[in-house]
Amino acid sequence: MKAIRRFTVRPVLPDPLRPLSDLARNLRWSWHAETRDLFRSVDPERWAASGGDPVRLLGSVPPARLAELAGDGPFLRRLGEVAGDLHDYTTGDRWYQNQPEELPAAIAYFSPEFGITAALPQYSGGLGILAGDHLKAASDLGVPLIGVGLLYRHGYFRQTLSRDGWQQEHYPVLDPNELPVVQLEEADGTPAQVSLALPGGKQLHARIWLAQVGRVPLLMLDSDVEENDLGERGVTDRLYGGGSEHRLLQEMLLGIGGVRAVRTYCRLTGHPAPEVFHTNEGHAGFLGLERIAELCAEGLDFDSALESVRAGTVFTTHTPVPAGIDRFDRELVARHFGPDAELPRIDVDRVLRLGMESYPGGEPNLFNMAVMGLRLAQRANGVSLLHGNVSREMFAGLWPGFDADEVPITSVTNGVHAPTWVAPEVFRLGARQIGDRRAEDALTVGGSDRWDAVADIPDQDIFDLRRVLREQLVEEVRERLRASWRQRGAHTAELGWIDDVLDPDVLTIGFARRVPSYKRLTLMLRDRDRLMDLLLHPERPVQIVVAGKAHPADDGGKRLVQELVRFADDPRVRHRIVFLPDYGMAMAQKLYPGCDIWLNNPLRPLEACGTSGMKAALNGCLNLSVLDGWWDEWFQPDFGWAIPTADGAGTDPDHRDDIEAAALYDLLEQRVTPRFYERGQSGLPDRWIEMVRHTLSLLGPKVLAGRMVREYVERLYAPAALSHRSMGPDAARDLAEWKERVRAAWPGVTVDHVETSASDALAELGTTLGLRVRVALGDLGPDDVDVQVVSGRVDEEDRIGDATVVPLKPVGSADQEGCWVYEGPLSLDRTGPFGYTVRILPAHRLMASSAELGLVAGPSEELVAAAGLLMR
Q1: Do 800 and 832 form a contact (C-beta atoms < 8 A)?
Q2: Is the separation of the CB atoms in 206 and 258 below 8 Å?
Q3: Which of 134, 418, 740, 830 could form a disulfide with 443 if both were Cys (CB 3.0 to 4.6 A apart)?
Q4: DSSP H or E segment with residue 202
């Protein structure tokens, strides 16, 4: 019989065991081995059955066992030590508290998904895992972050396979009472809520759930509450589900409701109010509108409020393609704002203007969430150096007149949270060299360029470690594969062959990620005969473990999954290649350490960063990857291989795949497998072990989330906090009025005349020329602008590359025609074709970038032709 109602009955812990509840509710256990070991000792079988989830474990332990533990002296001593360690961790000073400069009192970090632990399945892929690692690293460093997201009652989806290998989706209902979260409550014990106004006088209500991630609170909004109608209850049903209006409501709740949740949390707990708001991708961009509305309610006009909000906002873009950005029809957005809906005191046209693609090549009727994110943030970044370049090109239309490399989008390369992703065996090997405390600091705070202690680890120890991890993966794969085949309808009697799947002594390749087409799940199948030869080589075989989910609406991705599954089902190779369904954090934590090679073959440059290879590298796994994302930045032959690409303009996609697949097979046949199987005089693969050693010692310190978060603090959060503090109401009004005045006057700003002290177009290296420029500033003055000379080597079309920018200084006062003369040096510091030009930019002390207004004035074409600005 099926129950008509469900309850979650919590155990009553004996008083001596009460600290177990606090330990279970703080998600630090997900990366703190001692806490997990303590819970495992409560009941090892139930711990395994709970999937390593302390909340589920405590809900299943019999009262007799709890009573036994309450009288167990050694267990209570361990409990006291672990609880004391958590208290010290959450209250003591850490890296952030020991920085000399005045840093933000708090930072609010908004993301549509967070991958903290498999016990809280609120993530779909890399964006969520990155957000989870960001929170964990911030906790380790003592950064006062407040995370903000949504609580999806169905999470993303669980993946199984049909008998013929077609992906099937399942959406189990998540009960928050069975998750490691607590409900935020008002002082009187009632649930804390936020509400949004909807068209037609309706309301969208949401409760606030709190997940404690070490020192960092994560606020998660849940619309499945009784006060909502059925449609509104489903707003937070699934991650990335539903149609346009469903997504818009999710993003309004995340951004606008998220700010209101932060205000509520700070009011109830006394937590300092955030000085900086960080938008992780465009989904939460509406948070800026809510903050503008707050300031307008305090008496600021819209433009001044916009300047104030921009000063303290950081925007991170994660997508390298326009198709990856959420875009909504302008009429849909307009319907949800204004007098009859949300933010009634803000003119709808002002809302729309922030997100409209009002630039050459844009779609004028589409509201672009990333465009809004950039317009609402004074600081923006991509997630690798290459992705920063791609983003500057992609969004250059927002800054007309500027070269792409001057677009104000910087880069902070992603990192991964080492304590989450490093296998305990790897940590113990490092701790044996330098001690537990130093090893923990190396993985969390980072700061060093290399881990020299790795050089002292004997080759035999590294070889033994890698085999142990590979063996653990083989066991994990067989267990998961057997479960998968049972779900596909196979009987136990049919599955004896699984006992021989994979071999702990064979070179193991891992490939696991989401399955959009650009990641090319099936590139390895391009030449199946050649792949079979690799898998079945009599002396140097390889084995491959593949996992990945296609988006439920992406039938093309599902066909790629099916193609891979059908190949892996072939009895000739099924002991050498496997597809594991339902890729998630729990699987990943076994997969990364157990592989020898991590394969990544996206279409360059469509991988913004791609952190899975970082997690593998921290466990001594070597990367075999296209030079995309972070690998383009940090690749060295010492610790991996680069797959050559055929990404020239006009390359036929099929031909490109053929070329790059052939390059992949060549690398595996000629360089990778010989290196793994070669034995030196010691009988060990000493050249392979040396590459593992280099991966750990040189790559390890770079890929840390601790390094990433420190960069965010130093390069983005601290400057944003200073801007926020400088942008009081009066300063915001002054800046808004100045921008309005500059925009109005800019048509009158011109470069009238340029002359140099050069007598001809030939000059010697090292010569310094005098430059004299006459400019018209219209209604502006020298304090409103920068006049610059831009010089450098030029190409055949006279475009300046690798430019040097030098400011020119005004001489005297305006002449009778109101023009100003500027002078300065022009250094000829490069040989060959060399050129310069002159430009005028707006300048204000409160702007983070001279490109901020997207205004630039330069010489007219007639002036260029007459003056001969290029020197050859």
Answers
A1: no
A2: no
A3: 418
A4: strand 202-213
pLDDT digits (tens, 9 = 90+) for 158-180: 999 999 999 999 999 999 999 99
Tokens for 592, please give them.
């990364």
Task: Name the 3-class secondary structure at 584.
Answer: coil
**Cα–Cα dist 608/602, whole Å:** 10
434-458 confidence digits (pLDDT tens): 999 999 999 999 888 899 999 999 9
> At which residue do the structure tokens 């007799």 appear?
64
Helix (H, G, I), strand (E, B) or coil at 222: strand
- 757 has a pLDDT exceeding 80: no
Integer angstrom CA distances of residue 480 from 22, 118, 169, 198: 32, 16, 17, 45
Residue 755 CB contacts under 8 Å (≥ 6 apart), including other chains: 771, 772, 773, 867
SS3 content of the chain, % helix, strand, coil (to 5): 45, 20, 35
Nearest to 380 by CA among 403, 399, 360: 399
**3-state secondary structure (DSSP) of residue 814:** coil
3-state secondary structure of 395: coil
H-helix or E-strand spanning residue 150: strand 145-150
Asked if 546 and 621 count as a contact pair (C-beta separation under 8 A), the reply is no
Contacts of 17 by beta carbon, 8 Å cutoff, 6+ apart: 66, 69, 70, 79
Q: What is the dihedral of CA 409, 108, 243, 610, to 10 degrees?
A: 50
**Secondary structure E strands in 538-621:** 542-547, 577-580, 597-600
Q: Which residues contact 733 (CB under 8 A, 6 or more apart)?
A: 300, 301, 304
Count other C-beta atoms under 10 Å from residue 363's C-beta: 14
Whose tokens are 């801007």? That residue is 723
Tokens of 785: 């602008």
Which CA distances in Å does 638 have to 682, 689, 694?
A: 21, 11, 6
**Integer Cα distance of 754 and 868 in angstroms:** 9
What is the spatial distance between Cα 786 and Cα 847, in angstroms, rounded to a whole number?
13
Are the beta carbons of 265 and 217 closer than 8 angstroms? Answer: yes
Indicate left, alpha or beta for 75 from its phi (over 0: left) and psi (-120 to 50: alpha).
alpha
Instruction: Please give the pLDDT value at position 870.
Output: 41
CA distances, 641 to each of 454, 616, 670, 707, 826 (Å): 21, 14, 12, 24, 44
Please state the rounded mean pLDDT for residues 31-60: 95
Return the C-alpha torsion angle 557, 559, 564, 565, nearest 10: 110
